[in-house]
Amino acid sequence: MMASFGHGARRHPRSRGRTWSRTGTDRATLGLIGVICAVAGFFVLGIVLGPAAMVCGWLAMGRAWSGSRPTAAVVALVLGAIDTLLAIIWLSGAATPGMGMI
């Protein structure tokens, strides 16, 4: 049998290197990416970066409202929602980008 080129397939059916960690740095990285997208979305492309921040925050939370929530994930989700809402209001014409400046 030439299963896995010399590595027994019966002892270790899935190699450790290919299985992804469901906790830890992956979720922390997603939360950080979401926060960066949300903050950048306040300045440029809010209609794109806002939902991206919400998705990253939701995935960093583990796609559930219950349980422990990382702070970065909640911040990304909330700022992304605010960013998306402001972008929709701005696109609808109810507000202008420089409203109140002049």
What does the model show?
The protein is mostly helical and 102 residues long. Helices cover 53% and strands 0% of the residues. It contains 3 helices and no strands. The chain has helices at 25-41, 46-60, 71-92. Helix 1 (25-41) packs antiparallel against helix 2 (46-60), helix 1 (25-41) runs parallel beside helix 3 and helix 2 (46-60) packs antiparallel against helix 3. The longest helix is centred in the C-terminal third of the chain and has 22 residues, at 71-92. The protein is elongated. The model has no long low-confidence stretch (mean pLDDT 79).
Give descriptors for this structure:
102 residues; mainly alpha; elongated; single chain; 3 helices
What portion of residues belong to β-strands?
Answer: under 5%
Helix count from the secondary structure assignment: 3
The main sheet comes to: none
N-to-C CA distance: 78 Å
The Rg value, from CA coordinates, equals 20 Å
Element pattern in H and E: HHH
**Low confidence ranges:** none
> What general form does the structure show?
elongated
Helix content: 40-55%
> Would you count the extended β strands for me?
0
- Secondary-structure-based class equals mainly alpha
What does the average pLDDT come to? 79
